[in-house]
Prior knowledge:
Number of strands: 5
Enzyme class: transferase
Radius of gyration: 44 Å
CATH architecture of the domain at 243-365: 2-Layer Sandwich
Distance between the termini: 80 Å
CATH superfamily of the domain at 243-365: Histidine kinase-like ATPase, C-terminal domain
Transmembrane segments: 28-47, 59-84, 96-128
Keywords: ATP-binding, Kinase, Membrane, Nucleotide-binding, Phosphoprotein, Transferase, Transmembrane, Transmembrane helix, Two-component regulatory system
Protein name: histidine kinase
Order of helices and strands: HHHHHHHHHEHEEHEE
Shape: elongated
GO molecular function, one term: kinase activity
Number of helices: 11
Helix content: over 70%
Strand order of the largest sheet: 1-2-3-5-4
Amino acid sequence: MELRIMTNKLILIGFIIYNCLYSEHVKIPLIVFCLLIYICVNLSIAITKKRKIKKDFTIISMLLSIYSYFEVEPLFILLLPLNLYEWGEDMPRFRWVIFVISMIPIILINGQLAAIYGLTTAFSFLLFSITKLDATRIEKLENQVDQTRKSNYSLAKTINENKEYMRQSQYTFQLEERNRLSQEIHDKIGHSMTGTLIQLEAAKRLLEKDREKAAELLQNAIHISKEGIEKIRWTLKNIKPSPEQMGINRLKLLIDECSARNHIQISFLYQGDLDVITHIQWKIIFENITEALTNTMKYAKATHVSINIHVLNTLIKVEVKDNGKGHGKIKKGMGIIGMEERAASVHGKVIVDGSNGFSVTTLLPKYE
Length: 368
């Protein structure tokens, strides 16, 4: 803002100098002296940051313009409006009042100078108003940028805190799970092993004295051992998640991560009895879906991807389809060949279609 106003002042000073050079009755030394003082004062206005000092220098500049008008050169009056607008820049409600006040000298000015003064005053007011609006808009944008920066910092801090909370929660969960397993092994398996050991020790002592009692104790030990083995199997079965849970949860994590990273909508649907899908089939399904999603993000220019897992009577159908540009003639690269090889390893196959968007369908046999 200060740069524009200073440029306008320099233009007016240049106009004054030009007219004085071609005028016969001028006081050149005095004009130069007054112009130097005016430039120094207005540079001080532009440099200083304190509002009160700015206003004091502005008043000095206006008084200098008025004095120079009467005593040195009438053209100095052209410098008055800009200083007047600067003086009232922090009073936007009285902007038009200040403009009217700046037009009052036109009544006292005679001849051609009155027209020049009126034009200069109007142009200066227009320039000052536009500059003020730009400055206000820039300040508003800077405030918005600062607010956005603060919001981003707050969001980043919240994310870091959430990550730390999740890490601590995961660690706490692991400790709780270890404690639960330890307690469960102690309560269910430890007691069985202790009972078995006691029975075996007693049978060892009675083996020569009372064979029937020793045989009974051995049978009890065998029975307790069988119960302990069953408890171990039951505990491990409860601890180990099913293949269906592992497969679906792993796929959901992959889909959420891919959707967030690439800003694309991905829908996921699964139907049928997913328990029949084996570990090796889940591995093939996961790797083929990963490869299909990677190709979609690279080449398809799609906005939506649908993933559908359907367990039918004799096979498992996995389809990844996007709404991208598709491809009429499909050239199989390493990605598609890799998907076909993975499916073929369990006697399955892969069907690729690029006629309407792009779809990759993996068909795997269903094992009973």
